[in-house]
Amino acid sequence: MDFFKPAAAVPNPKRVKLSPSPDSAVCKTVVSSEDDTDNVNAHQKSRMELNRLIAKARLNLKICTQKVTKAKEAESESDYVKLSELLVERTWLEEAALTGELQKPYALNLCKFLKTEMCGGPIPIYPPPQLIFNALNSTPFDNVKAVILGQDPYHGPGQAMGLSFSVPEGVKLPSSLLNIFKELNQDLGCEIPSHGNLLKWAVQGVLLLNAVLTVRKHVANSHAKKGWEQFTDAVIQSISQKKEGVVFLLWGNSAQAKARLIDESKHHILKAAHPSGLSANRGFFGCRHFSRTNQLLEQRSIAPIDWQL
Hints:
- The chain is built from 9 helices and 6 strands.
- It has helices at residues 37-73, 90-94, 105-119, 134-138, 175-188, 199-203, 228-242, 253-256, 289-299, and strands spanning 125-126, 146-150, 206-210, 215-216, 247-251, 268-272.
- By secondary structure, the chain is of the alpha/beta class.
- α8 (253-256) links the parallel β5 and β6.
- The protein has a 4-stranded parallel β-sheet. Strands 1-4 form a two-stranded antiparallel sheet.
- Mean pLDDT is 88; it is low at 1-26 and 28-32.
- Helices cover 36% and strands 8% of the residues.
- The two termini are 33 Å apart.
- The active site is at residue 152.
């Protein structure tokens, strides 16, 4: 697989089917009266804002795809796009000060490693280049309200889309994601959706961040300890230092190990077992992290997340 060849198995994100964005912790909103014009107007504004954020995320993806395509078409290897050029959401580079992070020696070595992996062998890596920074490009730094930490991308063809636990529409739901939807149903009454595209969460301020942002096909953790952890630790530390009141959802031992990077005097940490089929019954089911997240946000007068897809 060529480093800069967009993977055909991962379609461009479709328009997300919108549901009402509530002003409380429940998934469904019922307008009690046809004359309640304030609620109707608020609902319309919420939908318009959500559509605007989705459009911005899709524009960032389009920019990345164009860069990848241009680099692929270039005759000279020196014209290939740099890893740092695929992080196009300016708030992460400016407000979160990650520009310098991508110029550090470890990041440059990581870029060389990825190029060798993608260009030098027959085994694909996931996600495709334009989606590597999809979590950051879909959730601006100034919008971050909550963080859901994953370990590394799904390693099956067409699954990884750069958002932790998320898969493109049309892809079978992995067991972990299905268990997340089951807990949402029990916690907030959200209907279990027919797809696993979590872009709607991302644009509302839920940073869906994996500790490692790439993986080799069918080999879990194959890109661990190559430099990604240092970069994503810097992302978490930047959020911890520069923001307040962010809710961190840490599922499983790997995610909970990141608690050391978070200032608990400024932020909220929710811990539970991992939602995988092997551990969901050991403390993930019943954790009620989704309603608790909304309660914590509302206590700070921050708009809650509409978790219904």
